[in-house]
Amino acid sequence: MRAFWASLDRRWRRSAVGMPPLRWQACLFVTLNAVILSMLLFDAPIGASEVPAPVKHLGEMLTGFGDSAWLIYTSILLFFQGRAGYKLVKTARSKAQALYVSWIGAYLFFTVVFSGLLANLLKRAIGRARPDHFHDYGMFSFTPFSGHSAFESFPSGHSTTVGAFFAAFALLFPRYRVAFIACAIWLGMTRVMVGAHYPSDVIAGLAFGGWFSLLTAIVFARCGLLFKLAPDGWPLSKRLFPDVEKPGAL
Fold it and tell me: Which GO terms describe its molecular function (predicted)?
């Protein structure tokens, strides 16, 4: 394990590109305004009304995807399967593919686990009442560190997991990023469909998870893993075999 961390430290030090100017102030400004506007315009109508039964049923069918447990198990499986494959296969190409799979597993594990832990700490510290207590406490009721799940609405943990997961895949496979973003929004909003969260909780969770995946990708890029840093510091997904031309290419 010590050799592993030493190897990562050497990779980090070899990177000549600095941390990117992500204009985080502007992005934070946009996110905060989206959350506040959602609170003012959408949260009260959602809290004061019942979600239609067909919509709630649809949400119940889809919302389980945001459960971090199966994503964590899958990422661990990918990591160890890749490591085992690296030891079993013989060719250099197959070894590279196995390592690539293992680092995808590590990347997904870090993004899902640590974004989820931070989101859970935040929701406990903020202590916002959930929508099913709207008539008792309203939408601006905050009881920090109450120790009760009824006061753990903001941000949505499920939405954080969904945002982190799909942002990670959007960075790894940018060709399909529009589809991944659409999936994140739909699955995040299932928390509103089932009455577990307000829309602003979901927006905050999706944004938090997405930004966490981006920052994790930058760290991986600095270590030369999965990503490379563009001249402006943005993480770009590495091609596994960049020198291999497509069949039939001239």
Answer: hydrolase activity
For CA atoms 182, 183, 184, 190, the dihedral sign is positive
Give the number of other Cβ atoms within 10 Å of residue 3's Cβ: 7
Report yes or no on 78 lying in a domain. yes
Domain assignment present for residue 29? The answer is: no
CA Rg, the chain, in Å? 21
62-72: pLDDT as tens digits: 888 888 888 88
d(CA 176, CA 49): 36
Ramachandran area for residue 127 (φ above 0: left; ψ -120 to 50: alpha; else beta): left
Cα–Cα distance between 40 and 29 in angstroms, integer? 17
Helix (H, G, I), strand (E, B) or coil at 45: helix
Structure tokens at 118: 């931070």
The 3-state DSSP class for residue 142 equals: strand
* Lookup result for tokens 């499920």: 158
Q: What is the pTM of this model?
A: 0.84
| Integer Cα distance of 244 and 221 in angstroms | 22
In a domain, 92, yes or no: yes
